[in-house]
Amino acid sequence: MNPWLGIFLNDMMSSTSEYLLILHEFAMSFIAGITLMVLFMFTSIFFSKKLALKTPHANLMEFLWTLSPMVILLSMAFPTIKVLYCNEDSHWPDLTIKVMGAQWFWNYEYSDFENINFDSYMTQETDLDSSQTRLLDSDNHLILPYKIMTRLIVSSNDVIHSFSLPQFSLKMDATPGRLSQIFMMPKKPLISYGQCSEICGVNHSFMPICLESISIFDFISWVKTK
Residue limits of the Cytochrome oxidase subunit II copper A binding domain (predicted)? Predict the structure, then answer.
């Protein structure tokens, strides 16, 4: 659970999302430093009694404010390229699930098994219990084994949707007639929530994603019950 009233990013639940969090904090450190430096310079100029109004140029300062942005951008470029490579790198999946968006529910098909195909609708308020979350829980969870590389093939039956899971830093548009793939590997047992992130109609806000990560043994037992 995040402190500070939840104004920061969610707790990350995969290696790739952790890389993105580190990159975010790395970039924010530069932004904070630049902001403080600019505020200090403005304050110094405002309260200074010795304004250099007659100075025609300052070669050293011009050199530094030209060089420093280059150094900052280069230092941010290398970790950014690494994170992009990790996001786009194609893995050999141990499990493949086809995710189909529709107005206004999700359909999950476990392609590696026979006859495991079900729809997932938002749980109505009248059916919620104390352990469930309003507007985010669903009647059928997307069940995944943790520490297993999973490929999600995302598409849509009608309009454009967007499959989004913030704790995994995943967001993929579900476009009719197009198959898009994303890879994920939960690192521990958890229940993670997401929502459709593309306005898809009047009930767009009532199209949650509820992912449940369990052990491989529990997953095998769950498959046998289907």
Answer: 92-225
d(CA 107, CA 119): 4
Instruction: Quote the distance between the C-alpha of residue 198 and its chain's center.
Output: 15
- What are the structure tokens assigned to 81, written together? 């390229």
Structural domain boundaries of the chain? 15-47+56-88, 95-225
- CA 143, CA 216: separation in Å to the nearest integer? 11
Q: 212 and 137 in contact (C-beta within 8 Å)?
A: no
Using alpha carbons, select from 118, 120, 96 the residue that is nearest to residue 106: 120
Pick from 95, 219, 81: nearest CA to 145:
219
Read off the pLDDT of residues 8-52 as tens digits, 9 standing for 90 and up: 677 777 777 778 888 888 888 888 888 998 898 888 777 776 655
The neighbouring-strand residues paired with 208 are 195
From the options 2.60.40.10, 2.60.40.420, 1.10.357.10, 3.40.50.300, give the CATH code of 95-225: 2.60.40.420
- The greatest distance separating any two alpha carbons of the chain, rounded to the nearest whole angstrom, comes to 84
Distances (CA, A) of 207 to 109, 136, 138, 146, 197: 17, 8, 9, 24, 9
Q: Which residues of the chain have pLDDT under 50?
A: 1-5
CA-based Rg of the chain, rounded to a whole angstrom? 24
Question: In a 3-state reduction of DSSP, which class is residue 4?
Answer: helix
> Is the CB of residue 99 less than 8 Å from the CB of residue 163?
yes
